[in-house]
């Protein structure tokens, strides 16, 4: 895994391959690409300046967080953020008390980190220019371990940055260390990563009883494993996972109702198709009896129809092909054929219809099917008309 430490402003980049290695320096982006190209690392964890974030910690129980929801958490930042809250990328974590750690009260609290969503996109666009797969994008106060003892803090001095980490999820920008330390009178142990200035030393010496340990920032150990970095709630790269909504029973009820409506709809549709199938079968029986009136008992319509075709020596495969193409159109138009004859490769149908337009429409449909259809004589018949249609391939 490649670790990249993003600078603030025009300062230098820093990188290392292993979590235990010393940080290497690259004066600019091009130098960083050249320096890391030989490492052949395709996955990277990137740390951006904590100074670009707004961190807020407030007392809150799990029940209160569930009632507040992600939108409510976002509006907790309204008095602190310089940009509208709907333009912020907000990440938060609820902790439930570890009284042996840090300067802060470890009863139930919500820890919120926010930064402009446009800035997150800017960071991602920058890192997309490199030949890496970015696994995590995190604030750089996570580079050093969280305090492990009561009333302990970690001070990071890196280039123009000064960050005071006082908890697992809480860190402050320490541009004016004197003012910040005044708000932490209970502080008894301060670990400094980097080289403090003379002004920093004066501020530290002004606190009676404060024990100070000094470390080189180049050897800062990784505070978490790679997997913990990737799953960290302040990883701004993936989308934040929203907690379950308090309205899930209503959502479940709507889903069940939708399923019931779908089942009823499917049942009605099946019943309707069954009725249509029964009507189609009745029409086919009526058509068969009109063609073969001597057949009064119908057991298997398909086999009986085939038997009649086979018994007629003058009817060949051409006739069967014509009937198979003409029959569905007669059923669709609900036009019975009172007489059917096949001779000289011509199928003659005597059709009973409501009028001449119905016969002409049937002839047009047959022609559209690629058949040669012509309308012959048309005669009145009991308020309807009887027309002769000749069909051939």
TrEMBL record:
Keyword Transmembrane helix annotated: yes
Compartments where found: Cell inner membrane
Keyword Cell membrane found: yes
NCBIfam families on file: typeII_sec_gspL
SUPFAM superfamilies: Actin-like ATPase domain
InterPro entries: ATPase_NBD (IPR043129), GspL_pp_dom (IPR025691), T2SS_protein-GspL (IPR007812)
Family listed: Belongs to the GSP L family.
Keywords: Cell inner membrane, Cell membrane, Membrane, Protein transport, Transmembrane, Transmembrane helix, Transport
Protein's UniProt name: Type II secretion system protein L
Gene Ontology BP annotations: protein secretion by the type II secretion system
């Amino acid at each position: 895994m490649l670790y990249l430490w993003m600078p603030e402003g025009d300062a230098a980049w820093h990188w290392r391959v292993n979590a235990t290695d010393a940080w290497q320096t690259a004066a600019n982006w091009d130098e960083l690409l050249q320096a890391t190209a030989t490492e052949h690392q395709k996955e990277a964890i990137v740390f951006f300046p904590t100074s670009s974030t707004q961190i807020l910690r407030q007392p809150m129980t799990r029940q209160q967080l569930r009632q507040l929801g992600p939108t409510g958490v976002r509006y907790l930042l309204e008095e602190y953020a310089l940009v509208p809250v709907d333009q912020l990328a907000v990440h938060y974590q609820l902790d439930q008390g570890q009284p042996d750690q840090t300067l802060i009260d470890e009863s139930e609290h919500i820890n919120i980190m926010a930064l402009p969503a446009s800035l997150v996109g800017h960071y991602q666009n920058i890192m997309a220019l490199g030949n890496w797969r970015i696994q995590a994008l995190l604030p750089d106060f996570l580079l050093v371990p969280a305090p492990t003892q009561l009333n302990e803090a970690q001070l990071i001095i890196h280039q123009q940055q000064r960050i005071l980490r006082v908890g697992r999820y809480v860190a402050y920008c320490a541009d004016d260390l004197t003012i910040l330390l005044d708000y932490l009178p209970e502080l008894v142990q301060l670990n400094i990563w980097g080289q403090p200035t003379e002004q920093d030393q004066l501020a530290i010496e002004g606190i009676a009883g404060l024990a100070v340990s000094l470390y080189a920032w180049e050897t800062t150990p990784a505070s978490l494993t790679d997997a913990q970095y990737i799953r960290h709630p302040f990883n701004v790269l993936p989308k934040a996972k929203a907690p379950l909504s308090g309205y899930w029973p209503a959502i479940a009820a709507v889903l069940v109702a939708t399923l019931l409506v779908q089942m009823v709809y499917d049942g009605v549709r099946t019943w309707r198709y069954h009725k249509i199938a029964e009507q189609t079968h009745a029409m086919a029986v009526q058509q068969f009896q009109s063609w073969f009136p001597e057949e009064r008992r119908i057991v298997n319509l398909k086999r009986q129809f085939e038997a009649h075709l086979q018994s007629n020596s003058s009817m060949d495969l051409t006739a069967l092909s014509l009937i198979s193409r003409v029959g569905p159109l007669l059923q669709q138009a609900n036009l019975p054929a009172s007489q059917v004859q096949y001779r000289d490769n011509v199928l003659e149908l005597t059709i009973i219809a409501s009028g001449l337009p119905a016969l002409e429409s049937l002839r047009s449909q047959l022609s559209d099917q690629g058949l040669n259809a012509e309308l012959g004589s048309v005669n009145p018949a009991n308020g309807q008309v009887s027309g002769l249609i000749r069909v051939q391939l």
